[in-house]
Amino acid sequence: MMGDDLLLRRRGGVLFLVLSAVLVLLGGGADAGVTSSYRRKLEATVEMPLDADVFRVPPGYNAPQQVHITLGDQEGTAMTVSWVTASELGNSTVKFGEKPDPEKMERRAEGTHTRYDYFNYTSGFIHHCTLKHLKHSTKYYYAMGFGHTVRTFSFTTPPKPGPDVPFKFGLIGDLGQTFDSNITLSHYDDNGGDAVLYVGDLSYADNHPLHDNNRWDTWGRFMERNAAYQPWIWTAGNHELDFAPELGETTPFKPYTHRYPTPYLSSGSTEPFWYSVKLASAHVVVLSSYSAYGKYTPQWTWLQAELQRVDRTTTPWLVVLMHSPWYNSNNYHYMEGETMRVQFEKWLVDARADVVLAGHVHSYERSHRVSNVAYDIVNGEATPVRDAGAPVYVTIGDGGNIEGVADNFTRPQPSYSAFREASFGHATLEIKNRTHAYYSWHRNHDGAKVVADGVWLTNRAQSYAVFFLDRTKTSSMAIDHQP
């Protein structure tokens, strides 16, 4: 008996040492966070002039412009190509194949077109064409503009969904079309990625008098250099609403929905603002902060069913996109996402979501794994606690738009905040396998590949270590290692 007691005490000592090592790896004090001391240069955030080369109209009569692609189905065997012809309708035909010469492209698809009026603006002819029955992990060339000026582009389809399929996401939000926006996009081009998860606020056309929709056209031409070659997964932000009763414009999201389709039908959604896609080993869920999400609304009903459909044996990484952040320690837009958090946070914790990405706040912030699911209005337990089953929350609304950097952080830094900085930049999420992914944030004032904030993430469904007593009473520690 004495021997057994001694053995148990020794094992307890070993467990204490292991737990202590975990605490050291996680930064010692559980509530320690970093407010970066880096200060970007005090300079104006200025939009690029309309004659900037990034806005140049492509040469040739009625040449297709503003070309961009997104997934055309849930699993990457279809791609939707969108473009604008400014002078006349032309046609909506796309030829595509594995050879770059349009004359040798063996397949073709017929698309549709649309136009819209917004106050004193009439759009060009907006074409959408979905290329179907594509092979995974295959480079395709595609061409459009037949009959006038033909332009050719290419993309590589994502790999077939599977648990150990590597994939690299670009994470961008609130981009706009300033000189800073151009640096952000150039840095992402240099860092490389397979697809972009975009968390909302695109052109900022509504920041101009009369919601100048010509700024939707310049933004489309600016983005073409990347968005024509890899799929962008779109999230609607507040600057996509374009709701302006004073101009007689009372249809929300009119320019956005005409220009940027999403594959919402393939995931059983009833609206293009909330949907899901599967990319390699990730199941990506897109939510709408500016559509109804209360109990029994279409978005509420869809998300409840969608989380049940996630197959973590095939797509172990669960990534969620929205525009308004749930955890934000900046006085700009502080707690604007609170009602959605109260509605959905427990669902995401129960589903063991890995990462939640948001924009809206024009700075950068990454949280610890925390949750606040105990709060029920009357119990007073409204303080987030460490929770190994909870996602990491990232605010990445720092793309470079005209409204400038949000540099008014709350003091002191709250315990849920791991790292924050008032700078422009972008991030990447590089999934390595079913258990590990490397997340990194890159500020614009560094070299493109310099990591200003990085962390190895362990998958919530597949591999995590947790030491806890009660999620609602004490902190939990997840092994997400700082590099």
TrEMBL record:
Ranges where the Calcineurin-like phosphoesterase domain occurs: 168-364
Record bears the keyword Hydrolase: yes
Signal peptide: 1-32
Keyword Hydrolase: yes
GO cellular component: plant-type cell wall
Biological process according to GO: cellular response to phosphate starvation
Stretches of the chain forming a coiled coil according to its record: none
Domain Purple acid phosphatase N-terminal: 64-157
The entry's keywords: Glycoprotein, Hydrolase, Iron, Metal-binding, Signal, Zinc
Domain Purple acid phosphatase C-terminal residues, every copy: 390-450
Known catalytic reactions: a phosphate monoester + H2O = an alcohol + phosphate
One term of GO molecular function: metal ion binding
Sequence similarity: Belongs to the metallophosphoesterase superfamily. Purple acid phosphatase family.
Full protein name: Purple acid phosphatase
